[in-house]
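pinging the channel bc i need a second pair of eyes. not urgent but kinda urgent?? the chain im working w is below, pasted from the shared doc
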Amino acid sequence: MAKLEIIVSIITINYNGLKDTCELIEALPFEDKSIEVIVVDNASKEDEAAIITNRYPQVKVIRSEKNLGFAGGNNLGIKAAQGKYLFFINNDALISEKGKVKSEKYASAFQPLIERLESSEKIGIVCPKIRFAWGEKPIQFAGYTPLSSYTMRNRSIGFGETDKGQYDTAHPTPYAHGAAMMVKREALEKVGLMPECYFLYYEELDWSMMFTRAGYTIWYEPACTIYHKESQATGQNSPLKTYYLTRNRLLFVKRNIKRLQRYITYTYLLLVVATRDICRYIMCQQFNLVSATIKGIKNFILER
């Protein structure tokens, strides 16, 4: 009997997030043998990989003894994946508003993303609509606007809005959203793995730039919706988040902005953005965030 082809590899990263990861796994349609689920445990304090393996033997679990960050963890998943399409999803996200997707609903849950990828050989990545999982479930992502090459600012289209169908038309987007994105394997093999130099934040933006430079486009496809709990792992306004956002914003500029423009952007980020942030943290007596901002700048300079 011929082995059933794996169509979609679902890849998620677990880091001290067993509850969220289990909620995600339990919503997946394991009855459909054309999908595989890969969980990369990024050196959780407890051996959560063993717990997941025991609870869900149908899941392929990879335990890393070192926290490899978002890109490094996903790259481990990529190397183990067999699917024609790779669907990356945060462990604090859900693929259905009401819970489990039944096997007969699998096509309606994922097929729009596959169809969008297959609609053009130039499309390398597609992202679903992303809504927050709390309250009235407002929109988090309906595509991105381009980053300003000077201020490094952009916006997530529809952010915070009530979903009334106003963003139900598919369209290209300059960047993928790391919380949920499906990638065509043949495109990934041409572009390469996620850049691991970031560890946390900005890696999916950089990867998007890599796809764009390779001649691929990225699309937003609202026929599929993901519900995101948001920042359960790092917390809001944490020193960890502040450090990596500060450092990686500068690193992204170094890797993606042309030389003359790059130094103008450095000047803006250091003299305007960082100074403003430090002053605000001092006013709020958030001295740990002051230290994290300064450390992010210092380490970027030292790593250059």
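so Residues 101-107 have pLDDT under 50 and may be disordered. and The longest strand covers residues 217-228. — does that match what u expected or am i reading it wrong
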